[in-house]
Amino acid sequence: MDSFLIPQNSTKKLDVILAADALRPPLTGIGRYSYEVARRLAQHDTVERLRYFSMGQWLDDPLAALHSSTAAGDPSSTPLAVPRGPTLRTRLATSPLAVRVYCALTPTYFGWRLRGNDKSIYHAPNYIVPPFQGKTVSTVHDLSHVMYPQFHPRARVDYLNLTLGPSLARTTHVITVSEAVRQEMLERGLMPPERITAILEAADESFCPHTPEMLAPAMQALGLRPGHYCLFVGTVEPRKNVERLIQAYELLPDEIRRACPLVVAGGKGWNSEAVHARMAKASQEGWLRYMSFVEQRWLPALYAGARLMAYPSLYEGFGLPIVEAMASGTPVLTSNTSCMPEVSAGAAKLVNPLDVEDMRHALEACICDEVWLAEARSKGLARASTLSWDRCVEETIAVYQMLA
After folding, report:
1. DSSP secondary-structure letter at 4?
2. Residue 262 φ then ψ, to 5°
3. pLDDT 10s digits, 120-167
């Protein structure tokens, strides 16, 4: 993994413009990454000025707007994971024609709005860098639109195909969220190696082991028994492989499914109607619970109360739920593909995500083996402790310093 160290005698103050498109609740995936980076940049001694730019507009302080949805008087709390309406980009992604018009017209306008800031560093946490006169940083979270276009609506693939190439041509340095994605970019010749740095993400500090007293309010609110459910957290969409997870769970002995039902927590994604129909049937049979968005205040306990986190995704750029579960002291079963072995670093049970029978055997072994569960908890906590958002932002600022 490439990394850069800030010289101890460096006094260079940074002027940073952060693209804030994803700084809207619910903070999942790229939104969570943008939030954790933004709030640390805002407090960092090296950053003299931090401004926010979104969809051609300058924003005052999106962090303040996010925190208005948290509990009053708790400035350290993070925004609630509440449903939101679609953004302009998500609405555009349903229409190939609208995507082409948008991609043709907006770069010039965004570049005009950003004029006169050539001494600043522009960081796009969500892939796309507009025309900009100064140094630029882009965070590339994954290349699923290139490697697995079938996992996305056609218009979304068209949008990234039309915008990523020109964006990379305008990008001084790329950050990837794992070494796996960095290697994928190098294999496709998208950027020379000296201009890509892998900087891993982390779990928020609220994800930690819980005592029975800490678990009780959330377990009562969510209707769950601590230690008696297997958890999946993520958007229900083809890439997350929820359908095969349900198929594998259905093959478990009935007594295991009854004692430890599967809980699926996540919003309804693209092309998920068949999965939701299967979940509804399993729910009627009494061995599956489906929750849509879960409030942020309950999410750490939802993780910490699970007997096992099952995350057999087909492809990830980082796989944040893996680390959130490990930080919570919850054993993890995940895939042996893409970045997931790198992120779990020997602390998780790895399975072939395309093999339902392999997944079934692994689920049964993990749920029933108390020795493995104890070892996985210990290894997971140790792995999660090596990853932090503070470290992520320090390494990000080191990239800024190198460019400045």
Report:
1. -
2. -90, 130
3. 999 999 999 999 999 999 999 999 999 999 998 888 899 899 999 999
